[in-house]
Design brief:
Elements: E1 5-10, H1 13-24, E2 40-43, E3 48-53, H2 58-63, E4 69-73, H3 74-80, E5 85-89, E6 95-102, E7 113-117, H4 120-129, E8 134-138, H5 145-148, E9 154-159, H6 163-167, E10 170-179, E11 181-185, H7 187-192, H8 194-210
Parallel strand pairs: 1-3, 1-4, 7-8, 7-9
Antiparallel strand pairs: 2-3, 4-11, 5-11, 6-9, 6-10
The structure holds 1-O-pyrophosphono-5-O-phosphono-alpha-D-ribofuranose.
């Protein structure tokens, strides 16, 4: 049986921090630091193979078993509900999902609220729990301009520093859910490569406690 552990890392700023945690946990892969455009890196001695994928695709690789483990934002896990195991909150990539609106916005409960978002399921669940009628406008980026142009009344989006909202004259009116990066595992890998996956999980968890 193939005993390599395939690890899907989210490409970008978060991915650098994530890889750094794996490295400090003893699962380093020095070739990853070489500045090139390769996407797959191996350390045969440690039996780990890392690959960079788009952050929103990590859960797909893990769900289908192309990766045994990976790191995905809680936002993606809530939105797509992939059939994976969520093993550990890594306490990095912290931000929040929030409802934001233009300054001075006043909700009129008798009107259907128009909500622009990339996270249709999270937004629908949030308003369904409150019994509020909404009309979802699904967008894939630059969500902040929707209420400015009158496409929507509010947005449901990720807020990290709050700069994007501020610079577009929007403000948070309600928090939806806190978000952070999670270590996830393919369900059958977790069973068949359990020892190694648990070892990685314990090492990452110990790092968190050191903080
Ligand atoms: C997210 C989000 C906001 C921004 C918030 O976009 O959609 O636009 O970050 O960050 P801030 O509060 O620090 O300004 P991201 O950069 O992830 O890219 P996206 O446009 O692909 O969603």
């Amino acid at each position: 049986m193939n005993n390599w552990i395939n690890i899907a890392l989210p490409k970008g700023r978060l991915g650098e921090k994530v890889y750094d945690m794996f490295e400090r946990s003893g699962f380093e892969c020095p070739s990853i630091h070489e500045n090139n455009r390769k996407l797959i890196f191996e350390n045969e001695e440690k039996g780990v193979r890392y690959f960079w994928v788009k952050p929103s695709d990590v859960a797909i690789y893990v769900e289908r078993g192309a990766a045994d483990i990976g790191v995905a934002g809680k936002d993606i896990l809530l939105e797509y509900e992939p059939e994976i195991y969520e093993l550990l909150d890594l306490d990095i990539g912290k931000c929040r999902m929030a409802v934001a609106a233009p300054a001075g916005f006043r909700d009129e409960p008798q009107r259907t609220l128009r909500v622009a978002t990339k996270f249709s399921k999270i937004a629908s669940d949030h308003y369904a729990a409150k019994g509020r009628d909404i009309d979802i406008i699904h967008l894939t980026g630059s969500i902040e301009i929707a209420p400015i142009l009158g496409l929507s009344d509010v947005i449901v989006d990720i807020v990290e520093t709050g700069t994007t909202l501020r610079e577009n004259n929007l403000a948070v009116i309600e928090d939806v859910v806190p978000i952070s990066a999670r270590l996830i595992a393919n369900r059958s890998s977790f069973k068949f490569k359990n020892e190694k996956i648990e070892e990685i999980m314990r090492a990452l968890s110990a790092l968190k406690e050191e903080k």
